[in-house]
Amino acid sequence: MEAATPADVLARFGHALADPTRARILLSLRESSSYPSDLADQVGASRQSVSNHLACLRGCGLVVTVPEGRRTRYELADRNIGHALGDLLSLVLAVDPTCSPVDVCDKDEALP
């Protein structure tokens, strides 16, 4: 298996953050490890939805499972992920309120 390039790593991280539920899960796990049912309550989503999002986050390499008897606890795969989330939260972005990221970012043509 080939090592992921820096661009691949950023694309996976970006994919994970692109969904508000996954972003809330990551922010919750930044605070402390948790069980899927607790995460569902914390982020206001169904257990099935959270389970699907956790599978995505595992596939992206951002979270890992820790078996505890019959239960499975989730935590960030690396503490640096928590630091990166903190750094992203501290950014001040100049956002145009009339511009939707979906309208701009999902177009195939390059931005000016």
Describe the structure in your own words:
Residues 2-96 form the HTH arsR-type domain. This is Winged helix-turn-helix domain-containing protein. It holds the Pfam family HTH_5. It comes from Pedococcus ginsenosidimutans. By secondary structure, the protein is mainly α. It has a single domain (6-105), classed as Winged helix-like DNA-binding domain superfamily/Winged helix DNA-binding domain (Arc Repressor Mutant, subunit A, Orthogonal Bundle). It is 54% helix and 11% strand. It has helices at residues 6-17, 20-31, 36-43, 47-59, 79-89, 101-105; strands spanning 63-68, 71-76. Strands 1-2 form a two-stranded antiparallel ribbon. A hairpin with a 2-residue loop joins β1 (63-68) and β2. α2 crosses α5 and α3 (36-43) crosses α4 (47-59). The mean pLDDT is 88.
Q: What's the architecture in CATH terms?
A: Orthogonal Bundle
Class inferred from helices and paired strands: mainly alpha
Q: What is the beta-strand fraction?
A: 5-15%
CATH homology superfamily = Winged helix-like DNA-binding domain superfamily/Winged helix DNA-binding domain
Radius of gyration of CA atoms, rounded to a whole number: 16 Å
Q: Give the number of domains.
A: 1
The pLDDT mean sits at 88
Fraction in helix: 40-55%
Q: What is the CATH class designation?
A: Mainly Alpha
Total DSSP E strands:
2
- Major sheet strand order: 1-2
- The SSE order reads HHHHEEHH
With helices defined by DSSP (H or I, 4 residues minimum), what is the helix count?
6
What is the name of the CATH topology?
Arc Repressor Mutant, subunit A
**What is the approximate shape?**
globular
How many angstroms does the end-to-end distance come to?
36 Å
Q: Major sheet, described briefly?
A: 2 strands, antiparallel
User: pLDDT under 50 segments (min length 5)?
Assistant: none
Domain HTH arsR-type: 2-96
Protein name: Winged helix-turn-helix domain-containing protein
